[in-house]
Amino acid sequence: MDKLLIAGGRPLEGEVRVSGAKNAALPLMCAALLTPESLVLENVPRLVDVRTMARLLSGMGVEVERAEDGGWRLRAARIARPEAPYELVKTMRASVLVLGPLLARCGHARVSLPGGCAIGARPVDQHLKGLEALGARIEIEHGYMNARAERLVGARIEMDLVTVTGTENLMMAAALAEGTTVLENAAREPEVAELAACLNAMGARIEGAGGDTIRIEGVRSLSGARWRIMPDRIETGTYLVAAAAAGGRVRVAGAAPATLEATLAKLREAGARLAVGDEAIEIEMDRRPAAVDVRTAPYPGFPTDMQAQFMALDALADGTGVITETIFENRFMHAPELQRLGADITVQGNTAVVRGVPRLQGAAVMATDLRASASLVIAGLAAEGETLVDRIYHLDRGYEALEAKLAALGARVRRVSSRP
Ligand code: EPZ
């Protein structure tokens, strides 16, 4: 199992370019199921999760290949096996995003229940409730969702809670349903709007995506398209927080600043100086950060995917920060690992009180989930001495070429394999 060895205590200097958004790429790959024609995706991030999704789709009979320019060409001319097996779904919950498109295109699907994951139970009840409202019949048998629908018929669906992939699943199913679907209390994340824009480029008729009410006029069929994936707003935020924690001056290029306003506001509150352009953000931090309070919320609120990174920043900040996680029930597993680096954190339910210490000390720590591992890397970059982060396969799921990008900023980071 690979580990990341970090020699901390040096500021970061230079430029890093952001990759395509993981949480846009995954639903966009599933959108290929909705048409027999080719969907060409550009700016696809080189991530384990993307490769897992490619394996899942090709197992159904979808032609999946890397296009000449590093993008991906997907073609679901025919779907031989509308199935998502447990061995793949258990490694990536986003696999549930094939359910809506398979039902819309094939009229039946057999998809493993995703099961829980480190950060919470993460049920899919809203996905199922919405698909049943569109006319699907879904039985849960032996850990699988067996779904059937001769045809999907548009409906008004009031979602009980804001769910990103739930909104995406229903939007894709409704795109080929008969008549009009209205999704109320829809997720407003930029990745939802990106998926709707690509579906519209394929011939769908979707309005209001990015807001909390989305209207979908079903069409009979969709065509192929070519689509360039938006920059990853969480990767962008992660590098900015790394620079705020380690100090220095970093330019994050190829970004979409308008998609991470809440994160930028918190960085300014922490004392960072930011220069924000159309496609780049420059951060300068030449002092100890001030502690900030963070409360996660659905977009455009502060993103839960940036919570762990800000806990690392608060850990070494001047003052005390209160972090409240309102989206997931167990997303503080980075706290005990940060404590091994000397952080002073008290967790009570969904609130963590972080009392900043002047310096963190390097130590051996263990990653538990994608954003928790990013938090440990950030803390390691700022800590005195060496930090060894174990189980960094979590990182490889969501951060393309992390050590190369950090090394280009002057960080002393090395991947060590503990393979015998
Ligand atoms: C998406 O997950 C992202 N993943 C997550 O990013 C992100 O943390 C999350 O949205 C919140 O922003 C992708 O887009 C692939 P939710 P998703 O459904 O859609 C509960 C990362 O680090 N819920 O919006 O699975 C759920 O348990 C990942 O890149 C139900 O109760 O999240 C959670 O508490 C981690 N029933 C809350 O809603 C449902 O049917 C929000 O979940 C669906 C969700």
List the helices and strands and how they pair.
Elements: E1 2-7, E2 12-17, H1 22-31, E3 38-42, H2 48-60, E4 63-66, E5 72-75, E6 83-84, H3 86-89, H4 99-106, E7 108-112, H5 125-133, E8 137-141, E9 144-148, E10 156-158, H6 164-175, E11 180-184, H7 190-201, E12 205-207, E13 213-217, E14 225-228, H8 233-246, E15 248-253, H9 261-269, E16 273-276, E17 280-285, E18 294-295, H10 307-315, E19 320-324, H11 334-340, E20 344-348, E21 351-355, E22 364-366, H12 370-382, E23 386-390, H13 393-398, H14 402-407, E24 412-417
Helix pairs in contact: 1-2, 1-7, 4-6, 5-6, 6-7, 8-10, 8-12, 10-12
The structure holds ligand EPZ.
Ligand EPZ binds at residues 22-23, 26, 93-94, 120, 122-127, 161, 163-166, 304-305, 327-328, 370-371, 398.
Mean pLDDT: 96
Count of discrete alpha- or pi-helical segments spanning 4 or more residues: 14
Kindly name the structural category: alpha/beta
Strand order of the biggest β-sheet:
22-23-1-24
**How helical, in percent, are the residues?**
25-40%
Tell me the Rg in angstroms: 21 Å
Measured distance between first and last alpha carbons: 9 Å
Which compounds are bound in this model? ligand EPZ
Count of β-strands: 24
User: Can you tell me the residue ranges where pLDDT is under 50 for at least 5 consecutive residues?
Assistant: none
Which percent range describes the beta-strand content? 25-35%
Indicate the overall shape: elongated
Main pleated sheet = 4 strands, mixed
